[in-house]
Design goal:
single chain, alpha+beta, 3 helices, 176 residues, four-stranded antiparallel β-sheet
Amino acid sequence: EFVGRVDAINRVEIKARVTGFLEDVVFTEGGAVKDGADLYRIERGLFEAAVKQAQGALESAKAAKVLTEIQLKRAEDLLTTSSGTVVARDQALAADQQASGSILQAQANLQTAQINLGYTDITSPISGKIGRTSVTKGNVVSPSTGTLTTIVSQDPMYVTFPVSQRDFLRAQQTGK
């Protein structure tokens, strides 16, 4: 006879990935949660505004790109008719390439803002039993807050038996 220990296969510490006021705790402590279930809601207003700001910057960068394309075409046309200079064409080309870079940067900023907005809804990555919450509604949470709660899986589970080598060899020899 051996004393066994039951361990969860999956154990997840839930943490905030953005800083904000905690609007709601959406689970019952000690209860079962499903994969994808809502756990916490962080105030979304600032993150929604950041997405709109990034969308505006992207539209502005696209508009600037349209202008630089027109100026580049005009500089190339003038160069072919000997009315323009190579320097003016090169400057227009550089401005056009810079506008392309600004679009990429604005797209990345928009994607970052959208990802951060998504982090305002904290969901369960696994199904299992959830522990106590370490924060309550109205508190400010951030990545430095630490673990908000822990979820452990319930099915399947590991069962381990701490057996000494002597006992193991004896059981192996006797077949019991």
